[in-house]
Specification:
This protein has 651 residues and is of the alpha+beta class. It has 18 helices and 38 strands. The strands form ten sheets. An eight-stranded antiparallel beta sheet has the order 14-13-10-11-12-15-22-20. It has a five-stranded parallel beta sheet with strand order 3-2-1-4-5. It has a four-stranded antiparallel beta sheet with strand order 6-9-7-8, covered by helices on one side.
C-alpha cells in the first residue's frame, strides 16, 4: 500500500478521498489554485501545494504542474477524483512516465471508452446492446441532418467526449436541428476541446440506470449492483439511488452481466460505471436497455453504492492501484436496504438552475436522523466562498434505510434541517422532488423534472410571520449568531410608554417598515407598516423560526426554503436598479455569441446573446419589444450584474 498520495482535484471529492486515505494511514497532498487557497480540501490534507491561477486550464487541468507537485512532495500515486484530468489518457501516460501510479484505469481503457462513438462500436462487437444512432466520423451539417432523418425524430445530439450534459441537445423538429447542432458543438468545444458529436434515437419515457463495475490487474471483474439516476435536469443528475426502483431479478442479471462483459472487453482495472438508457414504458425488461457510455472513473453518486454494499470504493481504488486483487468476489458482494443521494448546489432553481456564487455566511447540516443513517460529503465549510470558476456543488447528502420510502423520508427531513445563507441553493427544489408523488412511487423517467419544473421550483411565499422574525433579528446591534440578542438590545426605559424602535427590511424591491417595542414579559411587539393601531405580531424568545443574520441580510428558513431579506444601510447609496431597460449578467461569464446589434429593433423573447458560464451556454432574450442602444461585445468577460444590453430610452 502507498505511504503518500496526491489528490489531483478539489471540493468534496478531494475531501472524501482524504477521509479514506487517513483511515488507511496514507498521507495526503492537496493541490489548489489561487481561488482555492483557503479551501476545505487544502485545510484537511497533510500537505498542500499551489499549482496556478484560478482558471482550471492554468491549475487543475495542468498535468505538468500536478506531476511536479507529486514528485516534490514524495507522493507515490495520484488520485484524480472525477472531472478535470480523471479521464484524460495523456495525463495517465504522463503520470506513469514520471514513475508514479495513476489511481484509475489504464490509458488504453480510457481511450477505448472516452469517445462515445468509438465506445459504442466496441460494445456492439462485445455483444452489449447499444442505442440506435449514428456514431461515425462525418460531422457536416448536411450529413448529420440526413442521419437524424434516417434515425427518426426526436433525436439526441451528444458530444462524443466528456459528460455532465454538456454538448447535448434534444431535437424534436428537423428545422431546429442546425441551431441545436451548432450550440452542441460550441459547448462541446468549450468543455472538452472536441466539437465532434454523435446523433442517437431519443428513447421515449427513458430511465437512466447505471451499474458500478470494478476490475483489478489480475483479470478479475465484478459488479456492485445498479443505481438509478433518472432524476435529471438539463441532462445532469440531481438525485441518485440504489438499487433502482422496480428492478426485477431477470433484468438485474441481464444488465449487470452486460456491464461486466463491457468491463472485461477492455481489461478494465479500477472503478468504473456502465451507463444504460432504459425504455421503462412497460416496466423494466431484460430486452429494453442499451449501452450509453462508460465513465472510467469514480462517479459523483458512488456513496449510494457504498451504503447498500458496505464497500469503500476509494479504498478499493487504492488497493487495486497498489497491485492487490479485488477485496471481495462477486458472491461476497451483497445488497442491503436502500440509499438515496441529493446534490446540494449553489444554483437558482427558479431561474432555470442558473449557477450561483457567494460566501456561505451560514451553513448548518443535521447531525443525525432518528430512523435512518445520514452521511454528508461536503466540499466546503461555513465562511467558504462559491466562486464562478468551478462546479458549484456544496455537498452531497446521502441517507440509507431498510426501505426506499424510509430513505426518501429521511433525506427529505435532512434537507429540511439543512440551512444555507449567503448563496442561493437548491434545497427547496430537492425536497419538493423527493415529495413528488411520481418520484415517491418510483414512476421515474428522465423527463420528470422538466415536466414538473414550475411546481418543483416554486418557493415558499413570504408571510407576515417571516417578516416579523426578520424584523426582530434586525433589532439587534449584535450581528453574532445569538438570535436572542434582539430581545435584550431592543429593551430600554420609557417614562410613560415602551420605547418604539423603527426598523426596515427589503424583500426584492419592496421596502417593509415596522415599529418594534419590548413587552413586559420580554417578547417583542412588531407592527408592520404605518398603522400603529393594527394588532402587533408577537415574537418570543422561544419562537421556533430559524434565522441566520449575515452582513446586510437576514435569512428566514421555512422548511427547506430560505427567504432572504436585505437590511438597508442608510449611509450606503442606492445602486442603479436598471429597471426593465437594462439586462444584466445573471452570473460571471463569457459573452460567447451576440445575435443583435446597436439600433436593431427586437421583439420580446428574441435571443440577444449567448453567455457561457461554467462551461454551459445560457441564452439571454429580450424581456420586451425595443431598440438596442448598447450591447456587450462578443468575447467579453463579464461579472455578475454587469450590463449586457441597454435599450433606447434608458439613460
Amino acid at each position: 500500500m502507498f505511504d503518500k498520495i496526491l489528490i489531483a482535484n478539489r471540493g468534496e471529492i478531494a475531501v472524501r478521498v482524504i477521509r479514506t486515505a487517513r483511515r488507511l494511514g496514507i498521507a495526503t497532498v492537496a493541490v489548489y489554485s489561487d481561488a482555492d487557497r483557503n479551501a476545505l480540501h487544502v485545510r484537511v490534507a497533510d500537505q498542500a501545494i499551489c499549482i496556478g491561477a484560478a482558471p482550471a486550464a492554468e491549475s487543475y487541468l495542468n498535468g505538468e504542474k500536478i506531476i511536479a507537485a507529486a514528485r516534490e512532495t514524495g507522493a507515490q500515486a495520484i488520485h484524480p477524483g472525477y472531472g478535470f484530468l480523471s479521464e484524460n489518457p495523456d495525463f495517465v501516460e504522463q503520470v506513469e512516465a514520471a514513475g508514479l501510479i495513476f489511481v484509475g484505469p489504464s490509458s488504453q481503457a480510457i481511450r477505448a471508452m472516452g469517445l462515445k462513438d468509438a465506445a459504442k462500436r466496441l460494445m456492439e462487437k462485445a455483444g452489449v446492446p447499444v442505442v440506435p444512432g449514428y456514431h461515425g466520423d462525418t460531422q457536416a451539417l448536411v450529413a448529420l441532418a440526413s442521419k437524424a432523418n434516417e434515425i427518426g425524430y426526436p433525436v439526441l445530439i451528444k458530444a462524443r467526449a466528456g459528460g455532465g450534459g454538456k454538448g447535448m441537445r434534444l431535437v424534436s423538429d428537423p428545422d431546429a436541428f442546425p441551431d441545436a447542432l451548432a450550440a452542441a458543438q460550441r459547448e462541446a468545444k468549450a468543455a472538452f476541446g472536441d466539437e465532434r458529436v454523435l446523433v442517437e434515437k431519443y428513447i421515449q419515457s427513458p430511465r437512466h440506470i447505471e451499474v458500478q463495475v470494478f476490475g483489478d490487474r489480475h483479470g478479475h471483474a465484478v459488479h456492485l449492483f445498479e443505481r438509478d439516476c433518472s432524476a435529471q435536469r438539463r441532462h445532469q443528475k440531481v438525485i441518485e439511488e440504489a438499487p433502482a426502483p422496480g428492478m426485477n431479478e431477470e433484468t438485474r442479471i441481464a444488465m449487470t452481466e452486460a456491464a461486466v462483459k463491457a468491463a472485461r472487453a477492455i481489461s478494465y482495472s479500477g472503478a468504473g460505471t456502465i451507463e444504460f438508457i432504459v425504455d421503462a414504458s412497460e416496466g423494466l425488461r431484460p430486452d429494453r436497455f442499451w449501452f450509453m457510455e462508460m465513465n472510467t472513473r469514480l462517479q459523483v453518486e458512488h456513496p449510494v453504492t457504498e451504503m447498500v454494499t458496505g464497500v469503500d470504493l476509494v479504498e478499493w481504488q487504492l488497493r487495486v492501484a497498489a497491485g492487490e486483487t479485488l477485496p471481495r468476489t462477486q458472491e461476497e458482494i451483497t445488497l442491503t436496504g436502500h440509499a438515496v443521494e441529493a446534490r446540494l448546489y449553489a444554483e437558482d432553481a427558479t431561474r432555470d438552475f442558473l449557477p450561483a456564487t457567494g460566501t456561505l455566511h451560514h451553513l448548518r447540516f443535521p447531525d443525525r436522523l432518528d430512523t435512518a443513517t445520514l452521511r454528508i460529503d461536503a466540499g466546503v465549510a461555513e465562511k467558504d466562498a462559491i466562486t464562478p470558476f468551478y462546479d458549484p456543488m456544496i455537498a452531497k447528502l446521502i441517507v440509507h434505510a431498510p426501505t426506499r420510502e424510509g430513505a426518501i423520508d429521511g433525506l427529505a427531513t435532512a434537507l429540511e434541517k439543512t440551512e444555507v445563507a449567503g448563496s442561493t441553493v437548491n434545497l427547496g427544489f430537492l425536497t419538493r422532488l423527493l415529495r413528488d408523488d411520481d418520484f415517491y412511487a418510483g414512476r421515474l423517467e428522465t423527463g420528470l423534472i422538466g415536466r414538473k419544473q414550475d411546481v418543483l421550483t416554486k418557493t415558499a411565499a413570504l408571510q407576515e410571520r417571516h417578516l416579523a422574525a426578520a424584523i426582530a433579528a434586525t433589532s439587534s446591534t449584535d450581528r453574532s449568531e445569538d438570535t436572542a440578542s434582539p430581545f435584550s438590545a431592543i429593551s430600554g426605559y420609557g417614562h410613560f410608554r415602551p420605547l418604539i424602535h423603527k426598523r426596515t427590511v427589503m424583500h426584492d424591491e419592496d421596502i417593509v417598515e415596522a415599529c418594534v417595542s419590548a413587552q413586559a414579559d420580554g417578547a417583542l411587539a412588531i407592527r408592520l407598516g404605518d398603522d400603529q393601531s393594527a394588532q402587533p405580531i408577537i415574537v418570543r424568545r422561544d419562537d421556533p423560526t430559524r434565522i441566520a443574520s449575515w452582513p446586510g441580510h437576514i435569512t428566514v428558513f421555512e422548511g427547506a426554503d430560505a427567504l432572504t431579506l436585505k437590511v438597508p444601510d442608510p449611509l450606503q447609496a442606492a445602486e442603479e436598479s436598471g429597471g426593465g431597460d437594462r439586462l444584466r449578467a445573471p452570473m460571471p461569464g463569457l459573452v460567447k455569441l451576440v445575435r443583435a446589434a446597436v439600433n436593431e429593433t427586437v421583439q420580446k423573447g428574441q435571443p440577444l446573446l449567448v453567455l457561457e458560464a461554467m462551461k454551459m451556454e445560457h441564452t439571454i432574450t429580450a424581456p420586451h419589444d425595443g431598440v438596442i442602444a448598447e450591447i456587450a461585445a462578443e468575447g467579453a468577460q463579464v461579472n455578475d450584474g454587469a450590463m449586457l444590453v441597454r435599450f433606447q430610452g434608458a439613460e
